[in-house]
Design brief:
This protein is mainly α. The protein contains nine helices and no strands. α1 packs antiparallel against α2.
């Protein structure tokens, strides 16, 4: 669905009201212009009324803040935080009724678009997840293991020379732990992506929302930790710094 996908499951008739308000505005502007007023005058007369009536949806602060989410809940605005939660609203009685009333789509066409959106969500997340597993196993893991080997060789060389590499041993222990964790998370994501739909696109989409996306976030977190510690020449992928600031 994109964008905010926010705000409290209170007023389920909101989409229908939007359509009704647009139709009302069209009717009132037509009346005013027929009465001799210009389009600009008609809009100027109607707009303050519309703003006053719908003031509860207007917010000029940070729309991504927790404060606005809390305030929006008080105002009774919808609060869908992800695509899977938001999509079913499209097939609600109120939305389908609004589409049919204004001859935009019939019920069958609305449901067809809903099915397509669910499938599109699944395919998009699946592609991103499969790419993450590929990048993890083909690029990041081999590079991390190679760096781990170099650190281990350094620690062993210092020990063989009669010294003691405290920092080196500490780094090696950290790398060993993080590399193992990184691989474990890659395996978890790969397993999650193998989920079968069993004929239910909705259940499949919920699995991607509840299992796959958290697994993707966990793998990215582990990869970010390795990126911060590995030398620039060893890291196999372009960093944000390179993409944003280096031409």
């Amino acid at each position: 669905m994109g964008g905010r996908e926010r705000l409290a499951k209170a007023d389920q008739k909101e989409p229908e009201k939007v359509a009704q308000q647009l139709a009302r505005c069209d009717t009132e502007i037509a009346k005013l212009t027929k009465g001799g007023k210009s389009l600009q005058q008609a809009v100027g007369e109607l707009l303050p009324k519309v703003i006053k009536e719908n003031k509860r949806i207007i917010f000029n602060g940070n729309n991504y803040s927790k404060e606005w989410e809390k305030e929006a809940g008080k105002r009774g605005l919808l609060n869908f935080k992800n695509t899977v939660d938001a999509l079913p609203l499209l097939t609600s009685k109120e939305v389908v009724g609004a589409f049919e009333r204004y001859k935009v789509l019939n019920e069958r066409e609305v449901h067809a678009r809903y099915d397509i959106m669910v499938e599109q969500y699944i395919k998009t997340v699946n592609v991103e997840g499969q790419l993450m597993v590929l990048m993890a196993n083909r690029y990041i893991l081999p590079a991390a293991l190679e760096y781990q080997r170099k650190v281990a060789d350094s620690v062993a060389a210092v020990k063989a020379a009669g010294g003691k590499s405290v920092a080196g041993k500490k780094l090696l222990d950290w790398l060993t732990k993080k590399v193992d964790e990184f691989k474990r998370r890659a395996n978890v994501l790969e397993h999650a992506l193998g989920h079968e739909s069993n004929g239910s696109a909705e259940k499949h989409a919920k699995h991607f929302r509840d299992v796959v996306i958290p697994a993707m976030a966990a793998l990215r977190e582990a990869g970010d930790e390795l990126e911060l510690e590995m030398p620039h020449e060893t890291w196999p992928l372009a960093t944000y710094r390179e993409m944003l600031f280096i031409k």
